[in-house]
């Protein structure tokens, strides 16, 4: 199990930029519940950020898939037999409850995805009652287990080196569980507990349609934060994006004219920014020639060191990169990132082994061993270098565009950004007045 945890951390670290927020997990029996937008990578992300060992509940059909089945079994996962899986014997879920109960009785932690399916709807699907039933079953055995909600928020879940914000919420502790379990039968208690889990999960998620609204939320949040000079740390950014996403939903339904007006202003400013090639990051402040010269000198020295590494990686790893891309394009959006990682685990080591064998035959065993040890280092160094230089290129491009824009144009764009921020503040006050969303009452982030 320790090896699988290490493997999950490496895979997640390589593929995503992970930002964990929320309190650390407490000791004692825990049931973690998370949303499920990204197939097999969701357990890996929770495993990599949980800070304590976990046992996952996994659908029984995964155990029979080559390679995947070995990883699932090695992780200590507990099979769940779902009615929707062909050939699954749901009567065997008695074994699942017994195994989970034993883990909790030993002070361990389990994790499950109560939606029951992985999907790309951008919103929480109706929850199954399994988590509540597990906790109630543990209570019947004299074990007081707390429930911890975990919100997984992907910027672009299929994109390499994109960001995922993992939000751990406050635990639903033993006293809260006891209060929800009191009164009525087990079914009523499970329904109340499931409703509370759903509410807490929604508090940790940005719920937005992936076909358009998600991009609007991201853009509006960046423009608003730039206009107001607000911090860009994960906690504040997630809170703002959640509030904007919820506000869009409420405003569309209750005041479509107001929403249409704000959306039109958003479209106007984003089109003009795109026209001038200026991003919100540099719109909010002027970077003078002196600062730009220092930046250029520093980055030129770094580029002189990193560009050769990038070139070497491109020469050695272009073929496996293309193969991974080709295979992942055939996968569904839920499985694309998972397929990229699994195919990468196959193709990149094969490429390294192939280059090592070729070097050994051409120049001897020492050259082969050197290639075998050196190529992974080159690959990791190039990964860091590409990420850094891509950010530098984007900053330089925006700065050049900014300097090429007349001062009065930049001033007008700033005013429009400030006007949009004022409209969002007004909309936020309106939403609080009508009681539109739970999170609108939070303090301004």
Would you kindly provide a written description of the structure presented here, covering whatever features stand out?
The chain is α/β, with parallel strands linked by helices and 445 residues long. It has 3 domains: 2-202, Glycerol-3-phosphate (1)-acyltransferase (3-Layer(aba) Sandwich), CATH 3.40.1130; 213-276 and 419-441, no CATH class; 289-404, no CATH class. It is 62% helix and 9% strand. It contains 15 helices and 7 strands. The protein has helices at residues 2-15, 41-49, 68-74, 93-105, 130-140, 174-181, 186-202, 213-228, 234-254, 256-276, 280-283, 289-328, 336-363, 365-403, 407-434; strands at 16-21, 30-34, 55-59, 78-80, 109-112, 146-154, 162-168. A 7-stranded mixed beta sheet has the order 1-7-6-2-5-3-4, with helices on both faces. Strand 6 (146-154) and strand 7 form a beta hairpin. Helix 1 (2-15) packs across helix 2 (41-49), helix 8 packs across helix 9 (234-254) and helix 12 (289-328) packs across helix 13 (336-363). It starts with a helix and ends in an 11-residue tail after the last helix. Mean pLDDT is 87; it is low at 437-445.
How many DSSP H or I helices?
A: 15
Shape: flat
Taking the sheet with the most strands, its summary is: 7 strands, mixed
Tally of separate domains: 3
CATH topology heading of the largest domain: Glycerol-3-phosphate (1)-acyltransferase
**Mean pLDDT over all positions:** 87
Distance between the termini: 39 Å
Helix content: 55-70%
Poorly predicted regions: 437-445
Q: Compute the gyration radius: what is it?
A: 25 Å
**DSSP strand count:** 7
User: How much of the residues is beta strand, in percent?
Assistant: 5-15%
Fourth-tier CATH superfamily name of the largest domain: Glycerol-3-phosphate (1)-acyltransferase
For this structure, what is the CATH class of the largest domain? Alpha Beta
Strand order of the largest sheet: 1-7-6-2-5-3-4
CATH architecture of the largest domain: 3-Layer(aba) Sandwich
**Helix and strand pattern:** HEEHEHEHEHEEHHHHHHHHHH
Pairing-aware structural class of the strands and helices?
Answer: alpha/beta
